[in-house]
Design brief:
single chain, alpha+beta, D-amino Acid Aminotransferase, Chain A, domain 1, D-amino Acid Aminotransferase, Chain A, domain 2, 9-stranded mixed sheet, 8-stranded mixed sheet, 7 helices, binds 2-OXO-4-methylpentanoic acid
Length: 353
């Protein structure tokens, strides 16, 4: 496929790195590509960033048939730009596509096109530590049709957003609330796909959490309402005694790339790490006996996010001493050192542009 490039006539003003929040600003260009059954994926093009004109009947607006990804481009101290495990994002995106009946795309081509877009948007990759260029590849169903079936046509697009930290408090412990009334996903559904339905399902409990003064919701499993699953914007890890525990992937949890990186780093360091079921009762009892040392979330947007307090029913559990724990700190440093090119990349995770 031949990639075409149309450059923007005027360029936007770039914000200072110190002023960056999350997901509010977008760069000058975007990537687009279309699908129909006759041509497959076709017409790959880089164009000026622009709104999309859509028929009000467009399928994605009604039935949410869409998938997306989140990855980041980092600027190293020497000014080079690099990606972190981008091939894993594109292969997860195709897995998400399969779960919601979207035709798969060529992952190698998607990576090449992304690199071209990044070369053009190079000036938008910020330099300050903890800032990056967040990359949002997305596929949406575009048939103008109100019947419930999979679409025949699709648009794949990639937009870029210069970002700072995801949580306004930065790398500081957050407070999370375990909801007993709502569930995010169940095994057999689409919980493991990065698809808008999972995020829509999280909004009601999320807003309740915010009203109560909590940053995020920690979800319990949808069947027994007993086992801890994930946070929605992050996977979750618990340190009990000397064991690092993260819920096993069973179809309802997003298979996070940062989650996988934490698992691989912990194993590389010979720490005891288990992917297993962990119940809220086990967590409460570990807290009661003083064995709950740390809780942290992992995600592309959030990197490693220490958890200082958990609320479940009437109980508030302060985790460890409520501060950033040593394992969270070690993982955060190791991951960001690799991402920002400050250390060796023993796992081969970095992809230069
Ligand atoms: C990410 O970590 O990239 C996410 O997708 C989480 C959230 C911003 C949706």
């Amino acid at each position: 496929m031949q990639l075409t490039i149309e450059k923007a006539e005027t360029l936007k003003e770039k914000p200072e790195d110190t002023k960056l929040g999350f997901g509010t600003l977008f760069t000058d260009h975007m990537f687009n590509m279309d699908y129909n059954p006759d041509q497959g994926w076709h017409n790959p093009r880089i164009e000026p960033y622009q709104p999309m004109l859509m028929d009000p009947a467009t399928a994605v607006l009604h039935y949410g048939q869409a998938v997306f990804e989140g990855l980041k481009a980092y600027r190293t101290d020497s000014g080079k730009i690099q990606l972190f495990r981008p091939k894993d994002n594109f292969s997860r995106m195709n897995r998400s596509c399969r779960l919601v009946c979207i035709p798969e795309f060529d992952e190698a081509f998607a990576l090449e096109a992304l690199k071209e877009l990044l070369k053009l948007e190079e000036r938008w990759v910020p330099s300050l530590f903890e800032t990056s260029l967040y990359i949002r590849p997305t596929v949406i169903a575009t048939d103008p049709f109100l019947g419930v079936r999979e679409s025949f046509t699709y648009r794949y697009f990639v937009i870029l957003s210069p970002v700072g930290v995801y949580y306004p408090g930065g790398f500081n412990p957050i407070k999370i609330w375990v909801t007993q009334n709502h569930v995010r996903a169940v095994s057999g559904g689409v919980g493991e796909a990065k698809t808008p339905a999972n995020y829509a399902a999280s909004l009601y409990a999320g807003s309740q959490a915010h009203k109560k003064g909590y940053t995020q919701v920690l979800w319990l499993d949808g069947i027994e309402r007993k086992y801890l699953e994930e946070v929605g914007s992050m996977n979750i890890f618990f340190v009990i005694d000397d064991e690092i525990i993260t819920p096993k992937l069973q179809g309802s949890i997003l298979p996070g790339i940062t989650r996988d990186s934490v698992i691989k780093l912990a194993k590389h360091w010979n720490l005891k790490l288990s992917e297993r079921k962990i119940s809220i009762d086990e967590l409460i009892s570990a807290h009661g006996s003083g064995k709950l040392k740390e809780i942290f979330g992992s995600g592309t947007a959030a990197v490693i996010s220490p958890v200082g307090e958990i609320k479940y029913g009437e109980q508030s559990l302060t985790v460890g001493d409520g501060k950033v724990g040593p394992i969270s700190m070690r993982l955060y440093t190791a991951l960001t050192d690799i991402q920002y090119g400050k250390s060796e990349d023993p796992m081969g995770w970095v992809e230069p542009i």
